[in-house]
Predict the 3D structure of the following.
Amino acid sequence: MRQEIPDPQVKDAAEQYINAWNELYKLPLGSGVLLPMMNIATVAIELYLKCLCSEQVFTPVDSVDRINIVTAKPQKRGHDFIKIFKKIPEAYRCELTKQYNSFFENDSRNFEHVISELEGAFMQSRYPYEADCDVSRFNLQDLSKLCEFLSDFVSNLQVTDTVYS
């Protein structure tokens, strides 16, 4: 196994979601796309976090010519932002937190606090009709700021390789 940070395949998927989110976010209020916009934002956030902690998997398709299909495997499956965040190597978590605090210095909450407040937004934006769902508890401004911040953070990273056995 090998880890490349950010993982290019997961980063590409995150960028596709952030591009879709940007298009929906431009629409005027009341356009009828609140739930898809929230859902896409949470998927983008999840994928940006996962691109910082996914492993590359090499599946041989031709052993003679050493041809492999390369896929990515997140170290944490699911939509739990905090659990995914904790799988990011410590140096990246520290840098991400430091840059977040610097970027949003007027916000007393740290990165981990903000993502914990957004925990569950993915499921609730998909199933708003269920009795225990309340999408109004999620701050759209936080979703917006987090999407922009993570996009910038990941885009500015220098790609590093960490080799695993």
The chain has one domain: 2-157.
